[in-house]
Amino acid sequence: MTMGAAITNPFYLTCLIILSLMQVTTIAGEKHSYVVYLGSHSHGPEISSTDLDRVTESHYEFLGTFLGSNKAKDAIFYSYTRHINGFAAILEEEEAAQIANHPDVVSVFLNKARKLHTTRSWEFLGLENNGVIHPSSIWKKARFGEDVIIGNLDTGVWPESKSFSDEGFGPIPSKWNGICVNGLDKSFRCNRKLIGARYFNRGFASVYGPLNSTYESPRDDDGHGSHTLSTAAGNFVPGANVLGYANGTAKGGSPKARVVAYKVCWLYKGEGSCFDADVLAAVDAAIFDGVDVLSTSLGGSPGTPFFEDGIAIASFHAAKHGISVVCSAGNSGPLAGTVANVAPWQFTIGASTMDREFPAYVVLGNKMQFKGQSLSKALPNKLFYPLISSKGAKAVHATIEDAERCKPNSLDPRKVKGKIILCLRGDNGRVDKGNQALIAGAVAMILANDKESANEIIADPHVLPASHITYSEGLAVARYIRTAKSPVAYITPPTTQLGVKPAPFMAAFSSQGPSSVAPEILKPDITAPGVSILAAYSLEASPTNENEDKRRFPYNILSGTSMSCPHVAGIVGLLKSIYPNWSPAAIRSAIMTTARMRDNRRHPVTDASGLKATPFSYGSGHVRPNRAADPGLVYDLTVKDYLNFLCGLGYNSSQIKSFTKEPYTCPKHTALANLNYPSFSVPNLNSTITVTRTVKNVGSPGSYRARVVSPLGTSVIVEPKYLKFDKVGEEKSFNLTVKLRQKDAARDYVFGHLTWTDGKHHVKSPIAVKAGSTQVIAS
Length: 779
Prior knowledge:
Elements: H1 10-21, E1 31-40, H2 49-67, H3 69-75, E2 76-80, E3 84-92, H4 93-100, E4 107-110, H5 121-124, H6 138-141, E5 149-154, E6 194-199, H7 202-208, H8 224-233, E7 237-242, E8 245-250, E9 258-263, E10 265-268, E11 271-274, H9 276-289, E12 293-296, H10 310-320, E13 324-328, E14 347-352, E15 356-357, E16 359-364, E17 369-373, E18 385-389, H11 400-404, H12 413-416, E19 420-424, H13 430-439, E20 444-448, E21 466-469, H14 471-483, E22 488-491, E23 497-498, E24 526-529, E25 533-536, E26 555-558, H15 561-578, H16 584-593, H17 615-618, H18 625-628, E27 633-634, H19 639-648, H20 653-660, E28 680-685, E29 688-697, E30 702-709, E31 714-719, E32 722-725, E33 731-740, E34 750-757, E35 762-771
Parallel strand pairs: 5-9, 5-12, 6-9, 12-13, 13-14, 14-24, 18-19, 19-20, 20-21, 28-35
Antiparallel strand pairs: 1-3, 1-4, 2-3, 7-8, 10-11, 15-23, 16-17, 16-22, 18-22, 25-26, 27-29, 29-33, 30-32, 30-34, 31-33, 34-35
Helix pairs in contact: 1-4, 2-3, 8-15, 9-10
């Protein structure tokens, strides 16, 4: 069969109809509930009950032509009789496809759950279920973070967003000392929810020169800041969605908290920068203002010494004043040693998925189909279009590598116009590739992963119809293009699919450990949802941040550790509400030691390639907010502990004294591994190491037993094996000894864990060990 620009063969049309119905993965013959929509009724609202019964009978008769009259009556469980004309029924996929072909049917679609959720993430984390908040939810215990103050270091805020409305909020907490600085933007207003805003641009101006008036405002012109702040503490906002996808009630982790925006990140010629000088000024102000939590979705280069890292320095001062500083781990994964924000006083967050996707199927002319993801608009018609690879569409002056990745000016419009183009992920942004394809005249884009990204596919609001597929699927599409005489493809409209398995798994972009500054501290600390997160946005920015994209959305879906960071910041706010006197270290410990390392199949968490992930990806595991509210034991830290740690890194007393402006002398002997952290990392083990930890009881009196899973090739012994606590606040210390069992063991990092349990609480800490060439003994 010869195939042109569009194909109308009935077989392919039937395939497309079936694909349009698929919003969850189905098995032939398996039944699901569908809605059969027939449009509107012609009768008025005063119709009699007899006539309503006749409508129901007409529905039975209609479905009976497909299933038989008896089966139709059993199948229908709703008959819409007054204004909406249609019915809901239990059907097989094939039956639904047949009904969809009937000329009287407007649409047939799966009966998807429309629940109250924030991009699904808070339900996925157990704070609600089908929109119902159980009394055991940390939201109830923490009064939704009422009157906790959460600050955000980012690109500012869009104050008009419903996520920051002060409707229903009482007076501003008396502890607030801050102000609302609107600069030259007289339309910018704070309120009883958004209680403060400041902007800091002098560090930026020192590099880029004098700034115009648009830089004199805390208003968010990028969208990133509004997104992160609303994820941490945005209000309940019904009906939030992007192009109809992810429809539900947006909300932050601490929805009743007060919020403050510190604008420290600025755009210049499309590039965003957040300078240390501005970050330090902002945190200095935040400490004075009285914030409880700082969400910091920005970071520097891995390997920067702590004293040369403005964020690390600022974070130390915040922690010293009891402020929890939550930081993103970075988006430089999956390479090892790329994690940023690794100071032990920072709470470092990796990114993982949740159980929601936005499938958009790629259908090839050879009948192959692949489940990708997208938030783009649909193709104008359910027709096949010619398919070309970006490599085959290379402009004369472009390199093959640039063309493969659909970089600017790399595609020949004469080759691309009117076709679907296959682009390779890497180097430039995912949405930018679609933008370049659109500029070149493509009708749609298939975005295929490179080898490094493997199976991680992300839903983006592309500027043209698109679908993002895996690396292996991209190879199959490329093979089809090479071998087919006239390759064609179609992309189905995206849908919203819930209950996806496995979830979570680690995002390929999430930066990984070990820390290149202090590998004795296992980083990142934890992982949280960071893929396809819906939250508030700026109406000055397009959803793709592409200049050619003229669309504006009040809510947008983004991915990154920037999105996982404020999830944890919101949870920290809840714990701060419940335990106002807990230190930032105690709160971090509660969240870390109650995390889990299994997905919703009860299997170990995997990476984007499907391989078992390690603590260098997820830290202590995936966050569980409700468990964190009752951790049983915590590993606490003081400022002096951090100072001793710095001594162990080689900083001298005079340096540290200038760092703190307080009397301090380094101890004679400091073992980095003895920092009272809720995880264990031994990067240079030759024979045996013994480390010491202290745990504090924050639950009821009781006895805890140590359970150990030793890293491969090692033995781990805990002494004592039992800890008995008679009162709240009591502290007990223990030693953990790690020994190599054989000479060639642990040449690369191996992992295990320690759990203290009293039967109710399970206080779990990961253990990472790597053999070295020098004997290390800490005691």
